[in-house]
Amino acid sequence: MKFKILFAFLLALGIISCKTGPLKPAEIEGKRIAIDESIAPNTSIENFIKPYSQHINKTLDSVLAYNPTNLNKSDGELNTALGNLMADIIMVQVNPVFKSRTGKEIDLVLLNHGGIRAAVGMGPVNARTAYSLMPFENEVVIVELTGNKINEMLSYLESNRTAHPLSGIKIKVDRNYQIIEATINEEKIDPEKTYFVATSDYLQQGGDNMIFFKDPVNFYNTDYKIRNTIIDYFQKVDTLKTKRDNRYIKIQ
Amino acid sequence: MKRRNFIQQTAATGAFIGLGGLSLSFSENYKKHITILHTNDVHSHIEPLSQNDPRNPNMGGVARRATLIEKIRNENPNILLLDAGDIFQGTPFFNFYGGELEFKLMSKLKYDASTIGNHDFDNGIDGLYAQLPHADFDFISSNYDFTNTVMNEHVLPHRIFKKDGVRIGIFGLGVELKGLVNAHLYKETKYLDPVEIATDMSRILKEDKKCDIVICLSHLGHSYKSDKISDVKLAAATENIDLIIGGHTHTFLEKPEIHINKSGKKVLINQVGCYGIYLGRIDFYLDKDNNISGDGRSISV
């Protein structure tokens, strides 16, 4: 017994002497720490941030235009004043760019209703308004679609029955949302023709199941962010003029 | 192998008997303490969330994070401060300054390293490159091949940090960019298989470079319903990783998860949601003796 203890003691000494062996994590503790108001902010960091945030706030909050009515995305069944404004802005802002680059013109614009991220209250509008309407970085893309693909798009709208923002197309549906008449540039859709449709890169890539945007005849990037089309438009006009109209309506 | 275990166990018992009451303080003296602090998916949230935020009102904020990290540094100087990617995109700070302020602040907080998230490509790979002069910390990514891009030679496949004599090996994994980021943004960045890369990297760090702790900074995402590679799948498919610090899925883990790796050992996975609302903290206590539990470690989470 005595020998055994001595042996153990010698072994222990051996361990102490050869401390160059590899270290191993023996105990590990893990947790998360909430960053909340109980932690006082570091003032030098706060002061460093201040000029950046002041510049941002000044820019975002400077008035660009005036909105005379309360706009929200639920004020109509198949078209809304706010959705019409967004689709029309894309047409007005992007068409000149597209035309100057390609010599072609945009025939219609289609966005998604879910992409309208905020309401716009009556009063002054600023860049912050554009950020809340469109917080994402999505860009406008243009696809050249065959008339058949446009008809697929119409079938999508028939079953979707939602006020997706549209511009450049007029659609009348019956009480069961089946299309009675659809015209682009005052003409019926020609399956032999192709059409230039502006939308967001998100939708073109299959967002909201808009699969008719896949495999277009031609595809054009514009490098123009949707949010920037809105900001540029606000800068251009004094007063926002938009209303619910007859571009996409149900005939009772 | 069994014989070796037996000898180790005997030795450990022997040490205990031999030193009697002294053994506790003895082992405490020999423990080294490394603290890993981490964030992920901060997404340009420099100021706290607004008072009206529906989920996390008035949470987060870099100035508060700075105070907290400073306090922990005062308690234990042996700290690594890490980020698992998606530093960029989410507030006008990014839209206005392109990530400059995010990198400057992370440098002021003395971040040691970050991996690269998909949103860090949002201003294109050139936009990321343009902000590098503001980053006083390393970018570590092992499965993005940047050879034919401007980021070539500005990203490390792994790095070994030494703290109090402890070797901590870090490698990084990014999510597949195709379908997630427009190709014109990431250009010729090549995505390599995370499991293969992780297997190589963790073996190199643990075996060749003799690291005591191996950490994977991952932007793969915590887990998916599909077959997509995730931190949970990675943990099970590899060995030699001690800790996976995750991101991408904005998963709010209340505490780190313990998973079992390919060779039956424990791996920790942690992820702290997003927007700098939480700081993750993992404390490693190291000992020369591998004698706490079956695989040599006790984990309390």
Automatic annotation (TrEMBL), chain A:
Domain (5'-Nucleotidase C-terminal) ranges: 78-214
InterPro entries: 5'-Nucleotdase_C (IPR008334), 5'-Nucleotdase_C_sf (IPR036907), 5_nucleotidase/apyrase (IPR006179)
Signal peptide (from-to): 1-20
Keywords: Signal
Molecular function per GO: hydrolase activity
Keyword Oxidoreductase: no
GO biological process: nucleotide catabolic process
Pfam families from the UniProt entry: 5_nucleotid_C (PF02872)
Name listed for the protein in its UniProt record: 5'-Nucleotidase domain-containing protein
Gene source species: Gillisia limnaea (strain DSM 15749 / LMG 21470 / R-8282)
Lineage: Bacteria, Pseudomonadati, Bacteroidota, Flavobacteriia, Flavobacteriales
UniProtKB/TrEMBL annotation, chain B:
A Pfam family: Metallophos
Name of the protein in question: Metallophosphoesterase
CDD domains, per database record: MPP_UshA_N_like
UniProt keyword list: Hydrolase, Nucleotide-binding
Species of the source: Gillisia limnaea (strain DSM 15749 / LMG 21470 / R-8282)
Family from the record: Belongs to the 5'-nucleotidase family.
InterPro entries: 5'-Nucleotdase_CS (IPR006146), 5_nucleotidase/apyrase (IPR006179), Calcineurin-like_PHP (IPR004843), Metallo-depent_PP-like (IPR029052)
Domain Calcineurin-like phosphoesterase: 35-251
Keyword Flavoprotein belongs to the record: no
PANTHER family noted in UniProt: 5'-NUCLEOTIDASE, 5'-NUCLEOTIDASE-RELATED
